[in-house]
Amino acid sequence: MDEIDVTPANVAPVIEGVDEQPETAREVVFEIRDGAVRYGSNLAVADVNFDVGAREITAIIGPSGCGKSTFLRCLNRMNDFIPGAKVEGRITYHGENLYDPKVDAAEVRRRVGMVFQKPNPFPKSIFDNVAYGPRINRFKGDLHDLVEQALTRAALWDEVKDKLKKSAYALSGGQQQRLCIARTLAVQPDVVLMDEPCSALDPIATSRIEDLMVELKRDFTIVIVTHNMQQAARVSDMTAFFTTDVGEDASRVGRLVEFDRTHTIFTSPSDQRTEGYITGRFG
Amino acid sequence: MSMTMTPPAPAPTPARPSIRRSSAGPWRSAKSAIASTLIVGSLVVAIVPLVLIVGYVIVRGIDSISWAFLTDDIPILSRSEGPGMGPAVVGTLLITGAATVMAVPLGVLGGIYLNEYSARTALGRVVRFLAEVMTGVPSIVMGLFIYSIWVLRFGVSGFAGALALGCLMLPVVIRTTEEMLKLVAPELRESAYALGGRKAGTILRVVLPAAAPGIVSGALLAVARAAGETAPLLFTILTVNATNTNLFHGPNTTLSVQIFRNAQQVFPGPQQRAWGAALTLIAIVFIFTLLSRGLSAVFSRKHRV
Ligand SMILES: Nc1ncnc2c1ncn2[C@@H]1O[C@H](COP(=O)(O)OP(=O)(O)O)[C@@H](O)[C@H]1O
Ligand SMILES: [Mg+2]
């Protein structure tokens, strides 16, 4: 399972001519420069530099504990809730400094939604789960339409349309995760962050969610953390590979090793550590 | 692969450890038997007194129970025989109810404050410590406290008793609420925040409903305990023989106080009334327990599987 099949069929297709496109043609959503996060005095991630392009799927891969989740949570200011967590460097969202004191973090999170590792619906009905976001954001319009739309986009509508009033906990794990995706889509975000969204799911549920991601890419920018390299290879356009640097004083700091087009990362990585990781030699 | 190869000599089967119970050795089954006996034994020890108490109260009190007993005034001449405990039933409901109305909302708000707004602040620690200390204050001391700050100024009333009971309930409700909120999965809050939620709305719409069944149970224990309190009522509500529905004026009485007063008498009439009052009190607490359990079950069934 660790050997990765890198035949072109298994890797996101190369779009003719993209390589030759000038950088400026790519619409950038997040620009990360010298991104770093500390927990208290502990440096967890450092030296992160890359851009997230609009309507692309960006995968973040790397061994456990290298700070993938920590970094992902910088992008919607989720780290604000962890006492002692401090984000350094410069992260911009559509050109605006995400950590400017004038920025409303709740508004950021409405635009940059997040799907978590474990499906975690609210203890409410299926309908109320999806309607939660629109309601708290004072959505004016047809809530039923919006909920149906979100569930349809999350490829769940047909399975739940007859039991919208039932508890969300009555759904299977894979359905719950798609419900969480629908819940995120219902607030009409611009970006969806996903932190190992399939790691608690079986292969069939996983492949449904992967199909869904590719589907959603048309309208949304997606950043996904995964430790499943086949998944990164299958769905993403760009891949960021992180690893853990162990310092002389045994300090462990996650760093970005390489960021490139997924095809390049999986066929001709420029860093030996990337190659070692994707061929299963370490990690 | 060549088929002419001689098959390798079968390896001697290693002795596979038996999966039979007896192979675990006699000492292990003995240990298991001892542990089971101890567990069942302690269950019996815990349940027997409970069954005995409830059973005995029913046996001794059931004869007193009648409509007249539940509604008639308490006989002026305390040694006389026959019903009534009406004023005490009304007083118990009114005073415990008023205490609940004051203490439960305040306690839930306090618990929310402690867990959500001041978990790591110095003020939060002080409040939590005081609530803990308050839980340990003897109920009669709470009665004296209300006596000195309230009764001396405004006179006895059902409300003074409710204040004392409320003060007893408050720290319990605060602590349970805090503990129950702590148990709510952090992922639930995070996903509410990830949808653009703000703090107050998230607490109100997600955290509190998730913690509600536990908070209801905790509040219920506090109410049941308050309904049976006697000491703090002795000098805050005194006693009456006729129903006093005015919570804010004049002395009042409760079943617990009537049990205390009647049981002190040597005559059979008041003795009988004390048993009847005890049974009534147990029944009231039991009914309220069932009601709120049912409510919280309905509540959680709506939200869980
Ligand atoms: N809330 C936290 N407080 C302190 N340290 C944390 C916290 N969360 C993660 N860390 C540390 O940060 C590092 C990166 O963790 P994480 O981002 O969860 O890694 P990954 O998602 O790549 O497995 C780990 O060393 C972890 O111990
Ligand atoms: Mg992680």
Considering the chains and any ligands shown, give keywords for the structure:
heterodimer, A: 283 residues, alpha/beta, Rossmann fold, 10-stranded mixed β-sheet, 10 helices, 30% helix, 26% strand, B: 305 residues, mainly alpha, MetI-like fold, 11 helices, 71% helix, 0% strand, binds adenosine-5'-diphosphate, binds magnesium ion
What report would you give on this structure?
The complex is a heterodimer of chains A (283) and B (305). Chain A is an alpha/beta fold. Chain A contains 10 helices and 10 strands. Chain A has helices at residues 68-72, 105-111, 126-136, 143-153, 157-160, 173-185, 203-216, 229-235, 262-267, 272-278, and strands at 28-39, 42-53, 57-61, 85-93, 96-97, 112-115, 191-195, 221-225, 238-246, 252-261. A 10-stranded mixed sheet of chain A has the order 5-4-1-2-10-9-3-8-7-6. The radius of gyration of chain A is 19 Å and the shape is globular. By secondary structure, chain B is mainly alpha-helical. Chain B has a single domain, classed as MetI-like fold (Orthogonal Bundle). Helix content of chain B is 71%, strand content 0%. Chain B has 11 helices and no strands. Chain B has helices spanning 26-61, 67-71, 86-117, 122-135, 139-154, 158-183, 186-194, 199-227, 231-234, 255-263, 268-303. In chain B, helix 5 (139-154) crosses helix 6 (158-183) and helix 10 (255-263) runs antiparallel to helix 11. Chain B is flat and about 110 Å long. The two termini of chain B are 57 Å apart. The A-B interface holds A 76, 78, 81, 83, 106-107, 109-111, 113-114, 116, 118, 120, 122-125, 132-133, 136-137, 167, 169-170, 180, 183-184, 187 and B 120, 185, 187-198, 201, 205-206, 209-210, 300, 302-305. Adenosine-5'-diphosphate (ADP) is lined by residues 39, 44, 64-70, 82, 252, 254 of chain A.
